[in-house]
Design a protein that fits this description.
The protein is mainly beta. About 15% of the residues lie in helices and about 40% in strands.
Length: about 150
Amino acid sequence: MKLCPPLSALLITASLFGCTHSSNPSMNLPLTATQRNPGHTATTTLTGEGNQTNFDFYITGVPNGTILPPRLYTFINKGSCQQPGPAAFAMNDKVNTEPNAGTGGWTFYRSAPIKMPDLLSGKYSIVVRTSPEDGSADIFCGDVAHATR
């Protein structure tokens, strides 16, 4: 059977799309700077992967005097940023960050052993904190309920 070039191109494109389409939806969560880190912004992208949720963070800065590159601790807390509860998950198996070329910000990746639907159904907040050497200050917070597609 001889396929014409437009049909061949369509079939190849369709098969490539099928291979690159992810069954793991992602959601974006803006993080608000605390009074200890005014003027900076941050976001994290949440992606469910099996029994865990992955987080890709981008922040524009840390408080003056923070040792660079910043070592940042991240937590999923019960409760909201306005009414914080105890830490439900500490995501601190690694605390290093990477400079984001061209933006002057920092990126880092974390994961937690909670399914994304469970995270979204409960009342949780994401907290980013400086290292103990930098005062263990909460510098960003975001309520998971505010995550959007």
